[in-house]
Amino acid sequence: MSFEVIVIGGNFAGLSAAMQLARARRRVLLVDAGAPRNRFSEASHGFLGQDGQTPAAIMREGKRQLSLYPTTTIRQGKVVRAQSDGDAFIVGTEDGGEERAARILLAIGVSDTLPEIPGLKQRWGRSALHCPYCHGFEVGGGKLGVLANHPHSAHSAMMIPDWGATTFFTQALFEPDEEQLVKLTARGVRIERSPIVELLGDDPKLEAVRLADGRVVPLDAVFVAPKTSMASPVAEQLGCAFDDGPFGPVIRTGENKETTIKGVFAAGDAASAMHNATLASASGVLAGVHCHQSLVMQSVV
């Protein structure tokens, strides 16, 4: 086999995993489709040493540094097929290429499905946001909204007042229970039960939202948690088990980041219910380290 490990995905998790394996002098192939989840964001925040950098710049520099390791190969392409073959794995790309390796490391990421509200999609990552820790400081002090589209939305709305005056839009879908209502009131959150039907302003800027009853409410940013799905079918093709996360399926892994399929490891948003640049990178480090150790242990049996 030309490679010992194939890393699928070249965002923060995949690059961090590949770096550990490269530094362990293992033959690594990283295949990146070039469509990271964070491509809509102007900057990555809260990532130590990278605060304010564009995600593209961080990944570009990561690939440059990774390419300096002689046992590493980086390829642009989309993996469309993955399967086991005895004690190895075969990976097929969209252009018809095929490679084998002893280990697979999945950093495939997730795809977001947003509520079907006019004006939301074109503001995604700019003034329609998913994480206050990633983007809250930049919209701090403004008029902020939380769009309820999942059962944990009320909890999210309790967090947001630390960044600005907050309105919780129930969308007539997720009415706070009595306990939640008390906590939201204590946090100064305004409850709006008429659903948002349109986002207004010169996108990607948000100036206001139009409600179903015709009112227009001034707003500078809205937080919404999209539903997520795997960005690639390869985890399912390999037979990996999934858990039900709060926003979508999550690849099941142990503490060592190995999936339910021996020899297949996973990191990043696809393998965690918590999505954050630093967490993705950290999980990649762990997956890369444990993947290397599994190769070592196999060789001494």
Automatic annotation (TrEMBL):
It comes from the Bacteria. Keywords: Flavoprotein, Oxidoreductase, Plasmid. The lineage of its organism: Bacteria, Pseudomonadati, Pseudomonadota, Alphaproteobacteria, Hyphomicrobiales. It holds the Pfam family Pyr_redox_2. SUPFAM superfamilies: FAD/NAD(P)-binding domain. Residues 4-127, 183-284 form the FAD/NAD(P)-binding domain. This is Thioredoxin reductase.
